[in-house]
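testing teh design pipeline on a random one, pls ignore if ur not involved
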């Protein structure tokens, strides 16, 4: 038993030593392998982030005459993939750096801590894990997103009218931040109801219809969607185009048809593509130039999309999804 344990420890030491040797050899040759792990392959925003990282890798490769390989390990949730499994795959691939949007922080914490112990550079995007010090973190300002969405809705509302807010039935910290921002802008007197639903198209549409039917005195004069689940299918909202002010925080390009047809006045969006470029740049600057970012955590500002800039933003999505 003792002999077996000693053999196991020796093998582990040899594997880690070989891994370090490979990493040092790649560094001398100017070759770097960077892994990226979004939350779900089927979510378009991570395709945009992947492209941002890839474009930055190409640019930096040319700038420094180095070889950067991007390893896309975002899980396919429909096929049973997971972020822990993706991280295990990246360890096997011996990546030099890791870019990740942590979906379940506490589940991922041991894997991220292990990566850091092995001197692997880690960059968070979208969200981060508390009490873990990455190389850099480019996080969404969700409080500001909620506030921007509420302010955009207020511009479309009659004075003193009230609104309903749609939120995930089990809101995580980011969703709670969106609600906090919305409440700050609206004030409690302008909120008629907070409607909760499962984060999918059918559940969201059903929850909206039930709330509208229960509003017999027509107190709800507008809707704020803190997630764009009602916009992930063909229009089925219980009001006619341009009849009801509505603003949503976007995560999918399918929402464009709702602006085009007049069901939604504005979208609030995050810089999905830029998360990829900024993360890749921070990693390569550290790995190749030994340059640490001046600020570890940077909050990325959300943006309002409406009829004035929707065409330009639509073209961006066409590029990201090629």
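output:
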């Amino acid at each position: 038993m003792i002999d077996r344990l000693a053999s196991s420890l020796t093998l582990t030491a040899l594997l880690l030593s070989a891994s370090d040797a490979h990493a040092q050899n790649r560094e001398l040759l100017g070759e770097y392998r960077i892994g990226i792990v979004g939350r779900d392959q089927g979510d378009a925003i991570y395709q945009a982030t992947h492209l941002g990282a890839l474009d930055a890798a190409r640019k930096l490769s040319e700038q420094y005459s180095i070889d950067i390989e991007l390893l896309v390990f975002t899980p396919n949730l429909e096929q049973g993939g997971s972020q822990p499994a993706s991280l295990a795959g990246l360890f096997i691939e011996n990546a030099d750096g890791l870019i990740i949007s942590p979906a379940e922080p506490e589940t991922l914490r041991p894997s991220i801590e292990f990566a850091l112990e092995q001197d692997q550079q880690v960059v968070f995007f979208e969200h981060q894990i508390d009490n873990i010090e990455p190389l850099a973190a480019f996080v969404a300002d969700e409080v500001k997103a909620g506030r921007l969405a509420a302010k955009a809705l207020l511009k479309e509302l009659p004075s003193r009218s009230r609104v309903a807010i749609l939120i995930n039935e089990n809101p995580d910290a980011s969703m709670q931040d969106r609600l906090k921002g919305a409440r700050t802008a609206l004030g409690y007197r302008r909120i008629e109801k907070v409607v909760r639903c499962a984060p999918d198209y059918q559940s969201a549409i059903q929850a909206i219809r039930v709330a509208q039917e229960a509003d017999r005195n027509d107190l709800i004069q507008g809707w704020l969607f803190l997630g764009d689940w009602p916009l992930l299918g063909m229009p089925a909202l219980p009001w006619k185009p341009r009849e009801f002010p509505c603003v949503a925080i976007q995560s999918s390009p399918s929402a464009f048809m709702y602006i085009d047809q007049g069901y939604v006045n504005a979208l609030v969006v995050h810089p999905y593509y830029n998360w990829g470029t900024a993360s890749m740049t921070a990693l390569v600057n550290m790995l190749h130039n030994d340059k640490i970012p001046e600020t570890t955590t940077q909050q990325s500002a959300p943006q309002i999309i409406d009829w004035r800039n929707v065409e330009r933003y639509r073209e961006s999505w066409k590029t990201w999804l090629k």
